[in-house]
Structures are given as C-alpha cells and as structure tokens.
Design brief:
single chain, alpha/beta, Rossmann fold, 6-stranded mixed sheet
Length: 171
Amino acid sequence: MATLIIYYSRTGTTRVLVDTLATDLSADVEELRCNRRWTGRWGFVRACFESWRGSLPEIESLRHLVAHYDTVVIAGPIWVSNPSTPLRSFLQSQRALLPRVAFLLTHGGSGAERSLREMERISGQVPIAALVLKESDVKQKSYRARLSAFALKLRLPALTRREAPASAAHV
C-alpha cells in the first residue's frame, strides 16, 4: 500500500512528526512550497493574518502525483484556528485527485476540531485517521505512542475513499 505524506512546516515542528511517520510507514514525502515566506516574528504575525483572512498562497508544482497513492497524509500547523494556508491551497487544488486521506495537525493551543472540519470540507472526504498534537508534546517528545497508533490506522487495507457528507463537501 503506497502512502504519500504531504506537509507544510513553518517552524519544523510538523517536520519532526513527518520524518518519524515516513520512516514508520516507508512513505514518500513531499514538502509544500509556496510563493510566501513566513519566517521570524513578523512572518508569524503575517501568517496569522493571512489565515484569518483566508488568503491562499500559490503552491509550487508537486514532484509526486497524489493519484498514484492509496493514501495521502496531509500534515501541517493550525494557524488562528484554521489549517495553515498552504494546506488549504493544496486541498483545494488537489481535491478531485485525492485517494483516501488522513490528517496530521500541530498547534500551539486551540482550533483542532474546527481545523479538522475545515479540512474535511475542502477535501470533500472524511479522513481514515486524524491526529492533532500540541507543539509542546512534540518538543517534549511525548507524542510517540499517539503517532504509532495513527500509523497503525494508516496500515489498514485501503477499502475506499470516504466522502464527506454533502453539506460538508461544498467548497
């Protein structure tokens, strides 16, 4: 079963999880790159503002074709109670091509449920697995058991793409 992990990481927190998960699943990895940079303190402020406004960056072309995989894990941070703007851009541009999906999110405090619902809405799918971890859990390395349980769910046979309810599928 072929798995691709697509991720965005502004500070490297999500990247730590992706590296561990990719090794565990023998998955291919693709980092989302976009035309905006959000480095430093002002980058953080700008990222929050753009997330709140809903402005989406242009994503660079991917090296991997998502349609060639059984499962695509979409991983990244939560910004202002929303999935980061690179994740939202990716989901909108690849929605029709996505096989079954799983979501892996990181955050500093809140917005987990809202972000998962937003990712379901944009992708048009219910994820086969979802995991949200706090940044502090990653820094303290107290995430391993939860990440292993998440990986176990991804190893289950690919039965079908799980469509989100019609009310959630409108983009």
